[in-house]
């Protein structure tokens, strides 16, 4: 395992500031009496191994290096500061768990996969974005967040079958809130029936209880981005039914609230849904 190197006050500038011009240096300000410091130190050393030399861990005893601690406004420990090119680029205080440490490092030490991912975010064409993300996914060994970015790009490109395959590849334990939002997007994109809008409105006019027609019409409207009208159809189902159709309409509304970019439309529909359910 990589071991943190001790930095004295007298050699801080050379050991940290100068060294950080060659490789990022993660400095852990600690003290022997600090319990959380003893928890954090081995985690940082293990992560230095896991990240393959993308940063070097250093530790500064804040009791013995009080001038350096004051220079960098260390008020409580452990205090961890990442130096790049002689400057602090990010920092945190306290003994963070491993997941949060990785998030901190990933944000500040992008590997080639992360660089591709960030480049893809600035690409307008969904097909070109998907290709960059596919390369990033391969480089990362299947990193979860990059896979979800790729699925979103595939949906933007209208490649629903490929997006569905990507969603299905995610294990149940990793099907988080973002996965569920993408699944709702896929379901919406795939949900239109064969009937056109005029036919569906004719069926509803003849029978306001034709919930199948209301669901199909709501889907057509949502696919066109006509969210208030789509919500209105589902709310009519909630108002008129007390059994399975109401449950389905409520669930679909909750899914679609996460997809709708119009905060006012969502807020209005939420208020109406709450009123109908109470």
Q: Overview of this structure, please?
A:
This protein has 278 residues and is α/β, with parallel strands linked by helices. It has three domains: 5-108, Glutaredoxin; 112-188, Serine Threonine Protein Phosphatase 5, Tetratricopeptide repeat (Alpha Horseshoe); 197-277, Alpha Horseshoe (Serine Threonine Protein Phosphatase 5, Tetratricopeptide repeat). Helix content is 60%, strand content 10%. A five-stranded mixed sheet has the order 1-3-2-4-5, covered by helices on one side. Strand 4 (79-84) and strand 5 (87-93) form a beta hairpin. Helix 7 runs antiparallel to helix 8 (160-168), helix 10 (197-206) packs antiparallel against helix 11 (211-223) and helix 12 runs antiparallel to helix 13 (244-257).
Concise summary:
The chain has 278 residues and is of the alpha/beta class. The chain has 14 helices and 5 strands.
Please tag this protein with its features.
Serine Threonine Protein Phosphatase 5, Tetratricopeptide repeat; 3 domains; Glutaredoxin; alpha/beta; 60% helix; 278 residues; elongated; five-stranded mixed β-sheet
How is the secondary structure organized here?
Layout: E1 5-6, H1 12-18, E2 25-30, H2 35-50, E3 56-61, H3 66-71, E4 79-84, E5 87-93, H4 98-108, H5 112-121, H6 126-140, H7 144-156, H8 160-168, H9 177-189, H10 197-206, H11 211-223, H12 227-240, H13 244-257, H14 263-277
Parallel strand pairs: 1-3, 2-3
Antiparallel strand pairs: 2-4, 4-5
Helix pairs in contact: 5-6, 6-7, 7-8, 7-9, 8-9, 10-11, 11-12, 12-13, 12-14
Sketch the major β-sheet. 5 strands, mixed
How many independent structural domains? 3
Q: How far apart are the first and last residues' alpha carbons, in Å?
A: 59 Å
Structural class: alpha/beta
Give the strand tally: 5
Q: Assembly state here?
A: single chain
Overall body shape: elongated
Q: C-alpha Rg, in Å?
A: 26 Å
**Mean of residue pLDDT values:** 94
CATH topology of the largest domain: Glutaredoxin
Number of helices: 14
Please identify the top-level CATH class of the largest domain: Alpha Beta
SSE string: EHEHEHEEHHHHHHHHHHH
Helix content: 55-70%
CATH superfamily of the largest domain: Glutaredoxin
- Percentage beta strand: 5-15%
| CATH architecture group name of the largest domain | 3-Layer(aba) Sandwich
Identify the strand order in the major beta sheet. Answer: 1-3-2-4-5
């Amino acid at each position: 395992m990589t071991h943190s190197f001790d930095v004295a006050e007298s050699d801080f500038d050379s050991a940290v500031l100068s060294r950080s011009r060659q490789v990022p240096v993660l400095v852990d300000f600690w003290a022997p009496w600090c319990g959380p410091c003893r928890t954090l130190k081995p985690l940082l050393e293990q992560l230095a191994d896991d990240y393959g030399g993308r940063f070097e861990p250093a530790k500064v005893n804040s009791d013995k290096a009080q001038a350096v601690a004051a220079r960098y406004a260390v008020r409580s420990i452990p205090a961890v500061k990442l130096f790049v090119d002689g400057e602090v680029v990010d920092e945190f205080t306290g003994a963070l768990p491993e997941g949060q440490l990785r998030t901190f490092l990933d944000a500040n030490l992008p590997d080639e996969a992360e660089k591709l991912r960030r480049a893809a975010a600035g690409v307008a064409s969904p097909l070109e974005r998907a290709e960059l993300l596919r390369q990033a996914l391969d480089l990362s060994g299947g990193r979860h967040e990059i896979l979800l970015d790729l699925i979103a790009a595939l949906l933007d490109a209208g490649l629903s079958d490929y997006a569905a395959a990507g969603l299905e590849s995610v294990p149940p334990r990793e099907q988080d809130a973002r996965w569920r939002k993408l699944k709702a997007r896929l379901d919406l994109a795939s949900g239109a029936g064969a009937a056109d809008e005029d036919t569906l409105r004719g069926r509803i006019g003849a029978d306001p209880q034709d919930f199948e027609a209301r669901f199909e019409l709501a889907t057509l409207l949502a696919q066109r981005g006509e969210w208030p009208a789509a919500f209105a159809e589902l709310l009519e189902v909630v108002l008129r039914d007390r059994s399975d159709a109401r449950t389905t309409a409520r669930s679909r509304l909750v899914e679609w609230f996460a997809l709708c970019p119009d905060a006012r439309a969502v807020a209005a529909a939420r208020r109406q849904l709450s009123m109908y359910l109470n």
